[in-house]
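At this stage, I wrote out one protein's amino acid sequence and its backbone structure tokens, and that material follows here:
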Amino acid sequence: MDLRNIAIIAHVDHGKTTLVDELLKQSGAFRANQAVAERAMDSNDLERERGITILAKATSVEWHGHRINIVDTPGHADFGGEVERILSMVDGVVLLVDAAEGPMPQTKFVTSKALALGLRPIVVLNKVDKPDAEPDRALDECFDLFVALGANEDQLDFPHMYASGRSGWADTELDGPRKNLDALFQLIINHVPAPRQLARQNEDFRMLATTLGSDPFVGRILTGRVESGKLKVGQTIQSLSRIGQKIEQFRVTKIQAFRGLGQQDIDEAIAGDIVSLAGMTKSTVSDTLCALAVDEPLEAQPIDPPTITVTFGINDSPLAGREGKKVQSRVIRERLMKEAESNVAIKVTDTPGGEAFEVAGRGELQMGVLIENMRREGFELSISRPQVLMREENGKRLEPIEEVTIDVDDDYSGAVIEKITGARKGDLVEMRPAGAGKTRIIAHVPSRGLIGYHGEFLTDTRGTGVLNRVFHSWSEYKGSIPGRRAGVLISMEDGEAVAYALWNLEERGRMFLGPQAKIYQGMIIGEHSRDNDLEVNPLKGKKLTNVRASGTDDAVRLTPHINFSLEEAIAYINDDELVEVTPESIRLRKRYLDPHERKRMSKQN
């Protein structure tokens, strides 16, 4: 069967997973009466809840005698480690762009990786049936983006289509028949080359492992594209590290190929196909699985270095162990090491005391997803404020700079520009009208200045602004950036919060919890209206007497308290504070810093 391998690239919420749903349906991958969930490729619970793709996943469709392997890539730069590996398995990319928004920062990130690999893109302008769609402008912006990313002439001569993924049609003309996706299938067959590996079927077997999974019955599973040769079940092969060191020799117990949404056992894997292998015990991502006669590993794509680090520690608060079952540092370390093994964008190192672990990654969202997965698995953790990783070059201290793209109502553009170019040390690159009463702002801002800014940004824009960010470059250290200005309200007692006490404390600031919430000494219960920390007593009840007087029976009406999400809590805290994460609760608390650590933190800022 004629084979094609493609990846679909899109910014968050541009309709990528919805389009894959329609490709699966129209290719006959589902039975007519089969119940299929919307966004079928988003199989992870967090992906469904947040509406984003976190893990790269493959599927396969058959269309008129052709098999098309489709790889769904994450749309967020924080999960770029998935993207860099996955693109090495495909021969072409479909770039999906919202016809109203045009190419966005995350699109830019993944597209730059695809163009650098020499892949020829197909541009699909999605959601052209929306009232605010401007497909011609979006197409021009795509061309400008390719030029800016250094695309060659073949890549600049890209075909384009107009589509509506939700309605299930794609046409070469804007006023086409709008019936189905046949035109897109045909364009993929004509434009994307067949895998060059098909000509290497008589060579020794070689395959680069790109994703790692596990199965309770067969153990470790590695997925990748067969670069050369053939492989049969029961055959003995070996694995080589990136530097050519032999890791292990094993017998292949299972070979699976993607068929629709599932995987089927096959007897033989051939060059060019994307398959999963089982039978190994030590091999991992970026290793070369090959015949015993091979001694040279395949070249693995370099992974961009992490930009932030977060300290994961045991939960040592007075409420530790009440809501989660996994609280020991040994269990936390095992889970983090397992994550680092399958996710090459994460690095884990032990701290001197052995009770906490430094986890380095791409961004706050990636860290938030890891922590959320761990708390759902029953872990209790204490999390520190994210710290930006610096770099030393030629005696100069460099820090990561991010490109921030903001779409905001015209009325709020002044407040946004003042914040990002003032205390946060950003440089304004571009500002232009985006239509419909909105302004698009592009700025280069230090990563340090963006930690904790998103919540402030939503407040400044009354929740109407959209902020996207992506790593841009390394630049000279821009000096100290002030953190949160407001102080916090700290509990001086252990027990359960009393409504009357919280009511009396409201004039001091905003609360983070309601009545009957469990609290302890040192726990942060609210934000102070001034810039200093204040110890308060949230347990102080109303004094009861047998004397009735006017004014003693005031009704207690509490202002709704602030409920932090996990990412908001991590971004909110200062260096001397921690987030306590359990399967049921997210709490903030103060921590003690020894003089050496305090000095290190002040130097970091």
In short: The chain has five domains: 2-194, 198-290, 313-386+576-605, 391-476, 484-545+555-565. Residues 425 and 478 are 7 Å apart (CA to CA). The chain has 15 helices and 35 strands. The first helix runs from residue 16 to 26.
